[in-house]
Amino acid sequence: MLSDTAEDLASFATTLREAIDQRGLGLGRIVARLEEAGTPVSAATLSYWQSGRSRPGRRSSLDCVSTLEQILELAPGHLVGQLGRPAVRGRNPQPPTWSELWNEVPAVVSAFEQITSSVDDHLTRVSYHDRVQVGPDHTERSTWTRQIMRSERDGVDRFVAMYGNDDPRSPLPQARALQRCEILRTTSEAGSGVVVVEMMLPRPLRRGEFVTVEYEFVQSAPYPPAHRYERRRRGANRQYVLEVLFDGQELPARCERYSQVVDGEEESEELYLDPDHGLLLVELDGRPGVVGARWDWPEGAA
């Protein structure tokens, strides 16, 4: 069973970081040896693993971790044992379950199960547009979202939205319905940083009908630290847009987009800020899995 506390989630990163330090190997050398072994991973991904900003969860990533154990001269299973195992999927897989998408945060699944079971499955997400506002103190202030959805049967009248803070100690964000939706109820798991919201549509939809909704999650002090934003999705969608708006006086040193389809390798590339200090990510025909952006703040910055 996967760990479900902040301390447990940090243990993999700590163990990996200490092992790398003890062996005295640079990330570049480790990456080269991983590639030679046929289990490649980028230096950026490895850096995020050891910093605790992301962690392996897919089969290919766990293979890479097994190779890392050999390179770092650790006992077999020393790192892998802290992560659990990925689900086995066939050539024509069903959409991944919430448990698979959020395998390192079981509280997400628990919160979803408390508020709904299958009603949300009758809506196809055609597109998402997320806009994240980051404050001058490197903290997340709010996230606005627009979704375009298509009903797959008659009578669908509600949908579910979720938001999770990376730091579970931060206050839960407040959900606000903005356009063509109304909040029915919310639920959360204590200490998880996750909130799930059930929202009502203006009227029941007909099969094949489209609807556009807008809502936002607003943070409160003490604000959660901002170093990434990602969306995890069970189904494919035509378009995903992510904007991250930074304060002009406090800009990140480096930005990167990343994505990983179910049971696939993580792919990443550098992103650059626009003249208005914003980051823009656009993905077309996205597949089930994870897509997002992450960034590093200058050393010594507040």
- Low-pLDDT stretches are 1-9, 85-92
Q: CATH class of the largest domain, anyone?
A: Mainly Beta
What is the 3D shape? globular
What is the succession of H and E elements? HHHHHHEEEEEEEEEEEEE
Oligomeric category: single chain
- Can you count the beta strands? 13
Helical segment tally? Answer: 6
CATH architecture of the largest domain, by name, is Sandwich
Average residue pLDDT? 84
Task: Walk me through what this model shows.
- It is a single chain.
- β5 and β6 form a beta hairpin.
- By secondary structure, this protein is α+β, with helices and mostly antiparallel strands.
- The radius of gyration is 20 Å and the shape is globular.
- The two termini are 36 Å apart.
- Helices cover 21% and strands 37% of the residues.
- Strands 4-7-2-1-9-12 form a six-stranded mixed β-sheet, with no helix packed on it.
- The protein folds into two domains: 77 residues, 434 Repressor (Amino-terminal Domain); 147 residues, Sandwich (Immunoglobulin-like), CATH 2.60.40.
- This is XRE family transcriptional regulator.
How do the strands and helices of this protein lay out in sequence?
Blueprint: H1 6-23, H2 27-36, H3 43-51, H4 59-71, H5 98-101, H6 106-115, E1 123-134, E2 140-151, E3 156-164, E4 174-179, E5 182-188, E6 194-205, E7 210-218, E8 228-233, E9 237-245, E10 254-261, E11 267-271, E12 278-286, E13 289-296
Protein name: XRE family transcriptional regulator
Organism: Ornithinimicrobium ciconiae
